[in-house]
Each structure stands twice: as C-alpha cells, then as structure tokens.
Automatic annotation (TrEMBL):
Keywords for this protein: Cell membrane, Heme, Iron, Membrane, Metal-binding, Repeat, Signal, Transmembrane, Transmembrane helix
GO cellular component, one term: plasma membrane
InterPro entries according to UniProt: Cyt_c-like_dom (IPR009056), Cyt_c-like_dom_sf (IPR036909), Cytochrome_c-type_DH (IPR051459), Membr-bd_ADH_cyt_c (IPR014353)
Record has Heme as a keyword: yes
Protein name: Cytochrome c
Note on how the cofactor is bound: Binds 3 heme c groups covalently per subunit.
UniProt keyword Zinc present: no
Transmembrane segment boundaries: 12-31
Chain positions recorded as heme c 3 binding sites: C345, C348, H349
Highest taxon of the lineage: Bacteria
SUPFAM superfamilies listed in its UniProt record: Cytochrome c
Pfam families referenced in this protein's UniProt entry, alphabetically: Cytochrom_C (PF00034), Cytochrome_CBB3 (PF13442)
GO molecular function, one term: heme binding
Amino acid sequence: MGAGVGVIKRFLAGAAAVGTVAGVGFLYYAWYPALPPVAPPAAGTFSPEQIERGRIVAAEGYCAECHTRTDGTPGPELAGDYRMETPFGAIHSSNITPDVETGIGSWSEAAFKRAMRLGVSREGEHLIPAFPYDHFTKMTDQDLSDLYAFLMTRPAVHLAIRPNELPFPLSLRIMQAGWKLMFFTPGAYKPDPSHDALWNRGAYLAEGNAHCGACHTPRNAMGAEKKSAQYDGAVVDNWIAPPLNAHNPTPTTWTEDELFQYLRFGVAPLHGPAGGPMSPVPHRFLSTVPEEDVHAIAHYYADIDHAAERSKHDAAALALAMEQSRAGLTGPNPDPDAKLYQGACAACHYNAAPSPILGRPDLALNNALWLDEPTNLFQVMLHGLSAEEGQSGVAMPSFYNALSDADMARIAAYLRRTRTTLPPWTDLEKKAAAVRSTVQSVPVNSSH
C-alpha cells in the first residue's frame, strides 16, 4: 500500500515538473518584446519606383478590401474597422494608414515585417489569424519593404477601431500563440525546382500575398486551414468560394485562359462573371497590376486543376450545355417550373449559338449549379449584379422583391435537374429563406 502511494506521488511530481517545464517553454515561445516607436518616415524617404512597386503588392494582396470599413458609414480606404464575422466572434481589421495614434505611423519597417512574417504587433502582441500572416510569411523581403513604402506614403487617417468581440479566453492574445504552435509555420516561399519560373511566380503570389487559400480552403474547428483539403472550397461571407483544384465540379474546365479572363476582367467566357466577395478581386485589384502576374496565377491554378488533361472533355460538355440551354424554351411547355424560369431568367441566359455569348452566362456551366448547396445561386438572385460587378457594363437586376422563397426554390430545383447530372438539392425553400435573411436590405440596383 505504502509503495503504491509512493509511486503515485512520484508520478504526480514528475507530471508537475514536466508541466512546469512545458509552461515555461511555451511562455518563452510566446513572448516577443515591444519594438520602439519611430517617427513616421518623411515623404521623400522612398523613391517613386518603390512606392509604385508597393502599390502593386498592396493590390495583389487586396489590402484595401479588408482594411476599409463597409458596414454603417463606409470608412476611408486602409483605415480599417472592417467587420469580419467568425465562428468565434466578430473581429475588426486594423488601421494601416500612417496615423501615429490609431494607425501604424509609429511602426518601423522591422516592426511591420515582423507583423507580416510572424503575426506579432509592434507592441509584442500576437495578432489574430483573421489577418492571414500564415500566407504573408511567404513574401520576400523586397515585397515587404515596397509594401511598407506604399502604406507609409498614404494619407494618415485618425480612426479608432471598434473592439473585437471574442469571448474569454480567446480574447487573450497569448491564446494566439497556442494556435500558432499548432498551425503556423513561418518562412518565405521556396521555389519548386520541378516547375518553371511562371509556375513559381504564380505559386508565390497565390499562396503568399494573394492568400487565395484563406477563402478557398475549408477550415477546421480551430479556424486553421485544412492542409489536407487545400483549395477544396469554403463558405465565406455567406457565399461559397468554389474549389480551385480538380474537385471543381463544373462540366467545362477552368483552363488557364478562362482563369486569366476571370481574374483580369471579372468574367470568364464559359463560366460567367465574378460576383459577391470575389467581384472586387478582378475589378478593384488585379485589373491594376502587371498582366504577367495575373497570367502566372492562372497558370499555377490551371496546373493544380490538371486543366490541360481535363479540358479534353470540354467540347462534349459544351455541346450538351448548349443543347440543355435551348431545350424546352421554344413552343408550348407544360412544366410550370420551366415557365417560371422562362419568365424570370431565360431572356438573358438563353444561348442559341454553339458556345455562350459573353454577357449571357450559361447556367449549365456555372459553378452555382454544380456546388453541393444552392447558396451562390440564391445570393445572385437576391443581390443581382451591378454594372461594376461581373462583366463590365452588364448588369443583372435583383429579384429580391420579384421572387418569393418558393419561387427561388422552384427555379433552383428546375435548373439542378435539367442542367446538371447531380442529385437534387434538398430543403430548397428553407435554404432560400436562410440566404434571404443574410441580405440586409433590398439592393439599390433592384428594378423589380
């Protein structure tokens, strides 16, 4: 009996010692010193060439998209306070203008680079990984220096950021160090010698600064990207960011040219326009950067998608889609769902030619019909597309007032059964109502 108690005591003492050592080790891992504040660099510190390079880096990283307030009263560009809803609570982006009190005006270049590479603020606090430093860590020293030059030469905006709404203990910044220990591997991008320079440039941009996986890769229960499901698609801002790999279900392939057209101009001839959260990427950002960088990203994803091999089947898929587009839309049609579709959609989405006409997206080829859920189809029905979204100058009206949830469900069911070879969606009217609940008000481009 006494010997057994002694063994238990020794075990507990050993466990306590191990726990103490582990705790001290974690604190050592988690601690970063505050870096001294600096005076904002003078305007002439950076050359015009470096500032322009930094502008390109900022555009390819979509900095203004997440660092500009959009809810309530829109805020000044790059002044932060963009509200991000997460499963853990709302997070508000930081002010990255060179304001000394509320922005990063007192940050040295070293402090800025540490934040980008390691996710640690100038004050030594761990940043919440809603800021995708797990991607930015791959950026080169030159790109980070150029980005710093660009940001430090923007107008300083004094704008205090709303506090985050994370519950305790997630609100403790040291908790982010634990997240990093499990999911974050710092380090610059290393070129793959088995691929050419164009592929590596695309990979560097896509996996680093452009952080495509932040939206197109599903996340685990801790909010980290699932490396085993890279680019498999995910839900973002109540839309579905579709797969960027061979799991993309559309019948015609996202070829390198389709990807380039979509990323550069906001519309792909066979797959339609960019809508929702994706729309600003081509229109606000990638349309303003060197064309060769957009080609590089398209080249990289076409390789991931095995596009060259998969596109061998595109001719047959395209012919079938055009046949489906024309079927049942001439002469009497007893199908009431088809009649509803004809009245609401067919005037713009009908294609009689051998291939879709630009500006008339063929729904049989669109991601929205082939995804596991009808979310994106309902979002487009409710929001529409303004002339600034999707294809330049081509608008789709909102059907927020014109179609009920039951109407949207009927159209979705009709298109799924007549334009795809996939199983029917379920609970469509309920899902239509759920998507409608995320639309805060009737869009301004509504004409119905």
